[in-house]
Amino acid sequence: MSSTAPHPHVGMWVTADGRIRQELLPHGRYEEERDGRKRAYTGRYTVDGDHIDYFDDLGFTATGDVRDGVLYHEHLVLHRER
Fold first, then answer.
1. Which string of DSSP letters, residue by residue, matches 13-39?
2. Residue 66 and residue 70: Cα distance in Å, rounded?
3. d(CA 70, CA 13)
4. Is 55 exposed, middle or buried (0-12, 13-18, 19+ CB in 10 A)?
5. Residues 2-61: pLDDT tens digits?
6. pLDDT in tens, 39-56
7. The whole model's pTM is what?
8. Hey, which end of the chain has fewer CB within 10 Å, N or C?
9. Between the CA of residue 48 and those of 18, 31, 61, what are the distances in Å?
10. Closest Cα to residue 25, out of 49, 40, 3, 9?
């Protein structure tokens, strides 16, 4: 993989009920939609293997881990959008 290729976790992740949609953008930014409110949360993220650290534009931080193709982000469970 070249250094300019996006990380394998880049893309849209969605909760089973579809209420929360989180897009990991290719250049280290993310956008999260909640209950139809686009860009409810935005910020940057860093990846170390399957661990993700989030740094929200509002000043708070969060973490996530991808295990077996599922993103566990704090109390959320998100799956790749198909």
1. EEETTSSEEEEE-TTSEEEEEETTEEE
2. 5
3. 9
4. middle
5. 456 678 999 999 999 999 999 999 999 999 999 999 999 999 999 999 999 999 999 999
6. 999 999 999 999 999 999
7. 0.89
8. C
9. 27, 19, 16
10. 9
